[in-house]
Amino acid sequence: PAGKLKDRLLSIPLQEADKLVTELGGVEQESTVSITVVGASGDLAKKKIFPALFALYYEGCLPEHFTIYGYARSKMTDGELRNMVSKTLTCRIDKRENCGEKMEEFLKRCFYHTGQYDSQEHFVELDKKLKEHEGGRLSNRLFYLSIPPNIFVHAVKCASSSASSVSGWTRVIVEKPFGRDSKTSAALTKSLKHYLEEDQIFRIDHYLGKELVENLSVLRFSNLIFEPLWSRQYIQNVQFIFSEDFGTEGRGGYFDHYGIIRDIMQNHLLQILALFAMETPISLDAEDIRNEKVKVLRSMRPIQLEDVVIGHAEIRVQFRHVPGNLYNRNSGTNVDRTTNELVIRVQPDEGIYLKINNKVPGLGMRLDQSHLNLLYSARYSKEIPDAYERLLLDAIEGERRLFIRSDELDAAWALFTPLLKEIEEKKMIPEFYPYGSRGPVGAHYLAAKHNVQWG
Ligand code: NDP
After folding, report:
1. In the record, which residues are listed under signal peptide (predicted)?
2. pLDDT digits (tens, 9 = 90+) for 264-321
3. Catalytic residue IDs
4. How many angstroms separate the alpha carbon of residue 39 from the centre of ligand 1?
5. For residue 275, how many other CB atoms are within 10 A of its CB?
6. Are 358 and 367 in contact (CB under 8 A)?
7. Is the CB of residue 264 below 6 angstroms from any atom belonging to ligand 1?
8. Which of 112, 147, 262 to mutate to test the pocket of ligand 1 (most atoms within 8 A of CB)?
9. How far apart are CA 276 and CA 217, in angstroms?
10. Are 91 and 97 within 8 A, CB to CB?
11. How far apart are CA 175 and CA 109, in angstroms?
């Protein structure tokens, strides 16, 4: 029966599901996915994209027929690409098992094509090679733009006109940065849409693929104890804290050129904020979720300089006080109106904990703050997949929920562009603070102005 078949298809890995569909009378034409990593010689491709693709292969999440092509200007043979890629693949999923065999199988599916990013001719050559591997099956093509942003549009133009699929879908994953401000971001969007439909563009923000960020919606919308409290009536403040356990070592030039506001705040933190603050979407459909996120971003006031502390450089939810708290100092206990705090630690040491007031065991009435603690490493033995694995799988499956729509991007830039302009015009000097401290002193003053304790 159709219902049972659907349930079975939903519960098995993609590779098996593909086989099953084929077995069921060959109704579906066999399909294949060709993944082209544009900029395959680069850092991101080596460190993240190829390892994530291998992890998906290892887990049986890639379709039966797939081919991976590296594309870049550097001259390399297929063997040299495989050799380069093999250095960054790890057997992290099942350390007990020797995954060497799987690696060999995976590497045999990886190929390389040398080409310029703005050459139609070179993309036509790529197209020919892809077709040979696709062997007449229905072809689906995914291009991952792992190249500097100034060449995005050239590559999209050539890929879309000379190497897109004629029988199946063509999708393009675009890496940040998506512009430097509203104007440049809008120009990039306009150029991309000249060659692609919006639903072909997958703007990646790898923070959205992180386990704890995905879990944020589950925590909110499937636990009755949180959602009714998720309002300003009960929450006094929310702090999104981005702290790194290393300095700017070696990245000074990058920060001078692009900066942490553009690189982290305008995208990663704002995306998490939107997920945190959105109303319940009507379904888990990508468009319903993204509609709610856009509403949050559009409802926010552009950020004013007076509300900002710039310093050289967890989600923390502080609830309000319990009205008329019985257990305050006046009642003879030691607790001074301590509030509940929910902390969602995205990285490192993924975990969720809730600070509660608790009675210290004993004859007296002493209270302290204890943690109801969900530390992922202690609770789950399975290693958490890298964000790129989740996102690559979603792009292959056409799941857009964790990718950024163009109107989300516009709304995000509209919040930060006036602020960035002012900071740059006034040549503002960031406040220094010692490495390992809790951030610039100004942040504590700003928090105090709003009657909030920082960090
Ligand atoms: P790279 O600087 O390593 O560039 C990737 C490849 O693009 C290079 O190997 C090179 O290949 C080609 N390339 C570099 N500069 C130019 C140029 N000026 N003109 C033409 N081709 C060029 O970038 P990453 O791999 O670090 O990052 C790729 C993209 O992902 C970028 O947009 C980056 O902003 C983004 N990103 C990177 C992250 C990371 O951790 N590295 C994290 C998040 C986003 P060849 O010379 O062989 O053609």
Report:
1. none
2. 888 888 999 999 999 999 999 999 999 999 999 999 998 888 888 876 548 889 888 8
3. 268
4. 6
5. 21
6. yes
7. no
8. 147
9. 8
10. yes
11. 24
Strand 201-203 to 235-240 pairing: unpaired
- Specify the 3-state DSSP secondary structure of 243: coil
What's the pLDDT tens digit per position in 153-195? 999 999 999 999 999 999 999 998 899 999 999 999 999 999 9
240 burial (CB, 10 Å; 0-12 / 13-18 / 19+) is middle
Quickly state the pLDDT bin for 248 (edges 50, 70, 90).
low
- What are 69's two structure tokens? 């092509």
Would the CB of 39 count as within 6 Å of ligand 1? yes
- The rounded distance, in Å, linking the Cα atoms of 454 and 341 is 13
Give the torsion sign (CA, 437, 443, 444, 445): positive
pLDDT band at 454 (very low <50, low <70, confident <90, very high): confident
Interface predicted TM-score of the whole assembly (ipTM), two decimals:
0.98
The dihedral region occupied by 190, where left means phi > 0, alpha psi between -120 and 50, and beta the remainder, is alpha
Q: Pick from 296, 398, 393, 273: which is nearest to 344 by CA? A: 273
